[in-house]
Design a protein that fits this description.
Number of helices: 6
Strand content: 25-35%
Largest sheet: 4 strands, mixed
Number of strands: 10
Low-confidence stretches: none
Structural class: alpha/beta
């Protein structure tokens, strides 16, 4: 892909406040470069899967080199999404029903819509939770007919203390750890006990002593 500056950048978010902050940052920090290169920037509010599908319908000839996203991967009811701006963490499970046991419904639908917008050599780049077993992530990509071309990031992060881990009970693949180096695996059952005790003792805690990987994966359409 060409290293030249992009002609067009489209930013999408469900939360209008996030879009306003992004616009303020871009116009404050990048104004001169945007003007110099004539970059067109568009801000679109709404469910990313729906917005991308509409972009595809309205701009049949407009294709993208990259579609990049950090998509919520915790399912929740639509009625709670606006509480305390949890949208960065949760998504409407009623609207996105694929892979319901793994929190992959929204990312599935966004990547499906994104794939239709790619140029012939275009790629998608998305953040994936390492709490999802590799075989399930593989099923997701096979269903979307996408192949992982590169792992751009593989880092350990603290597990969100308010997110239960019971859905992982019985999994034997090392997904959860007691340290940031990933050298001390925890079974999901023990990790849930550690998480629950820490969260109940201090609901505002940000590190409950359980860690998991976060991956940034580049994918390309596969035959």
């Amino acid at each position: 892909l060409s290293p030249r500056p992009p002609k067009r950048i489209v930013l999408i978010d469900l939360d209008p406040h996030v879009l306003k902050v992004a616009q303020l940052n871009i116009e404050t920090v990048c104004y001169e470069r945007i003007e110099q290169h004539g970059v067109e920037i568009e801000y679109l509010e709404g469910d990313a899967a729906v917005v991308l599908a509409n972009v595809n319908g309205q701009h049949a000839g407009g294709r993208f080199d990259y579609v990049i996203g950090c998509i919520p991967q915790v399912p929740a009811g639509a009625d709670v999404l606006w509480d305390d701006q949890h949208m960065a963490h949760e998504y409407d499970e009623g609207a996105h029903g694929s892979f319901p046991d793994w929190g992959l419904g929204l990312i599935h639908d966004v990547q499906r819509s994104a794939k239709a917008l790619l140029k012939s050599r275009g790629r998608t780049v998305f953040v994936h939770s390492g709490r999802v077993p590799s075989k399930v992530r593989g099923q997701l990509h096979r269903q979307l007919r996408l192949g992982v071309s590169r792992t751009l990031v593989d880092e350990m992060v603290a597990h969100c203390p308010s997110t239960p881990l019971r859905y992982l009970f019985g999994q034997t693949e090392p997904l959860l750890f007691a340290d940031r180096n990933g050298s001390e695996p925890l079974s999901p059952e023990i990790a849930e006990q550690v998480r629950k005790e820490a969260y109940e003792a201090e609901p505002t805690i940000t590190d409950c002593g359980v860690y998991h990987r976060v991956l940034v994966l580049e994918t390309v359409p596969s035959p």
